[in-house]
Amino acid sequence: MPDVGQVELPCTKKELIIVVGAEDHYSGKYAAPHRLMFMAQAVRQVKMTHARYDKVSVFWFQGAERVISNKCSQISGKIEIDSDCYGKYTPKQVKAFEIALKQYVPENKLLIKEAKSFDDVAAQANKKTVFVDGKTCKKKVRDMYFFGHGTPDVGFWLSNGTGHYLGLKNNVYKIHSESFYKLSTQKAQVFFYSCQTGNKDKLYKDTSMNYNEYIQKLKDESSAQFIANKWRVTVKASMRRTNYGPTWKTGFSGYWDEYTGNRTMIDGKVWEENGADAPMVSGDLSWQDDYGYDDETTPSVPKGYFDYVPK
Questions:
Q1: Cα-atom radius of gyration of the chain, to the nearest Å?
Q2: Strands 186-187, 182-183: pairing kind
Q3: Pairing state of beta strands 129-132 and 135-147?
Q4: From 67's CA, which of 86, 211, 233, 244 has a CA 20 to 30 Å away?
Q5: Is the CB of residue 301 less than 8 Å from the CB of residue 218?
């Protein structure tokens, strides 16, 4: 039986929402392979799954204001990227992102928008209707994906440089739980591909409890669990840092020299019009990795993406 209040009507549309965080963390030579990695993963996700949805809405956040040298627009190929190029997504990069998304989704079913704050994302998520295929229908969010940086203390970095986050203390309440699709056989899910969204802030170890209890405490007090509880959806997140290296199949160190495919540079940053080569993975480090649970060989927190169900 469907959940109470979630009986599917003849004209109910399913929406995919993707949020791309700002990449204003890496600078100098590290900016070249990293700057557009979140946008590339968003394109890959749309390419692979857009057919499941009636509406696709993609939001991206700009980074902090930085002075960008004129020579940024002149850089191409294998040239080392100067630290002066540390800055925001450039107009050319945003345009390339938009063109890539439009390859897969008709414009009448696609929304691409710069988000000035999480209010913009919440307003779209909370919309009760959508105009698609010439008629107005009821709408529910079927799935949400977040691609960006994160830390356990503040959660997902919408734009770290401008102080916008989504987590324990920030913005979660702005999306209503009833905005999500919750039929018993098809429940909405939220995916966080960001560092340690499923991990508690700064609890290094507590050997007064057994290891499984310790890990559960880290999960229960994480941003991922908080969001699952508030939105009443299953959230998938990593306790460890997220490794975006597979975005460019040869990894960040070989992002240019070892690849012979359809790869370009836009204002000095690596890009592929068909999106990332492979998905990011749960990495090898966490805030607890300075110490093991009880010795140097016991893992601090498990690797992988875990389900955080509403409690």
A1: 20
A2: antiparallel
A3: antiparallel
A4: 244
A5: yes
Degrees (nearest 5) of the Cα angle 97, 107, 133? 155
Q: How far is residue 6 from each of residues 36, 136, 262, 286, measured CA to CA in Å?
A: 38, 19, 44, 38
| pLDDT score for 252 | 53
Domain annotation covers residue 6:
no
Are the C-beta atoms of 36 and 266 separated by less than 8 Å? Answer: yes
Query: With 0-12 CB in 10 A as exposed, 13-18 as middle and 19+ as buried, what is 91?
Result: exposed
Tell me, yes or no, whether 4 lies in a domain.
Answer: no
Which residues constitute the domain of residue 173? Answer: 12-308
DSSP 85: G
Q: Confirm whether 7 is domain-assigned.
A: no
Residues 13 and 158: their CA atoms lie apart, in Å, by 27
Kindly state whether residue 1 falls inside one of the protein's structural domains. Answer: no
Structure token pair of residue 120: 């913009």
Query: Which two three-digit tokens encode residue 256?
Result: 């240019």
pLDDT recorded at residue 105: 97
Question: Which amino acid is present at 168?
Answer: L
As for how many domains the chain has, the answer is 1
Q: Residue 270 in contact with residue 255, Cβ under 8 Å?
A: yes
Nearest CA among 36, 39, 121 for reference residue 87: 36
Do 285 and 241 meet the contact criterion of CB atoms below 8 Å apart?
yes
Comparing CA positions, the residue from 256, 258, 291, 12 lying closest to residue 141 is 12
Q: What is the pLDDT of residues 178-231, one digit of tens each?
A: 999 987 677 899 999 999 999 987 655 666 778 888 889 999 999 999 999 999
Q: What angle do CA 128, 130, 136 make, to 5 degrees?
A: 105
Structure-derived torsion over alpha carbons of residues 123, 239, 220, 288, reported in degrees to the nearest 10: -130
